[in-house]
Specification:
With 305 residues, the protein is α/β, with parallel strands linked by helices. The protein has eight helices and twelve strands. Strand 1, helix 1 and strand 2 (37-42) form a beta-alpha-beta unit.
Amino acid sequence: MHHVHGRFAPTPSGPLHAGSLVAAVASYLDARSQQGRWSLRIEDVDPPRCPPGSVDTILRQLETFGLAWDGEVRYQSHRHDAYARALARLTEQGMAYTCSCSRKQWRDYGIYPGWCRDGVCQPEAPQAWRLRSDLGQRPVIWHDRLQGLQRFDPAALGDVVLKRKDGLWAYQLAVVVDDIDQNITDVVRGADLLDNTPWQLQLLEALGAEPPRYLHLPLVIGQDGQKLSKQNLARPLPEDPRDVRRLLHATLALLGQSPDPAASEAPVAEQLEAACRRWRPRQIPRADIASQGLQVDGDDADTNE
């Protein structure tokens, strides 16, 4: 049996909220139920979006919910050299190219039209690096453990940015390089990243790596009908022990894991242990989840950071 290695990879743009907790709990239970490792990776490739103190808050929140990770916390902001090596390898294969076009220039197109594929339009302008999505496997077909058979043509999604004009690394390249480096076997994350997977599978293939298994979770939707997110000022996770125990119980219920109704006041370690024994990924709903089901009775916490 292959050794399972899962991960949770939050962006430290603010504290974790109920939507982040669903992803953290599901990835944790999925790895632990298979006697696997569970790692924590901080996706801080974009420092301006990551206020100081956010990482400490996230670590404390995970500990409060009993979600203990293995080994050292990994930070993408320390991984510049690894990303640069991967980009050089992609460039050698003709899979990456520099692009000077601004979004304003191609705003009348649904996706970037690939103008710089055969040479930069404006050599004197700042340049980003893009993936040639028309090369490599097409269409990309894979089996998602929850959402079933997936089929996308990456070229219809466009040539995604791998390195930005300001020199910062883009999510698509960083996530793939780190998943390869950490030997991640199972990626459990939100369904908003489902259509990012084709690019990531193209990159994995170009970098000569075996793809992980993917499971894309239903999104947690706020009262405004939008995905719960820090931009929408989703409330940070509670810290009161009683609210923490109840929220963990509610999260397990919304993930379709039918926790024992009497366990909603049980310590988090006990709830997680029972959930590990009973983990059934097939019981997770595919459709989006309403966040109302994740509200605890504590006072309406402010959204102040």
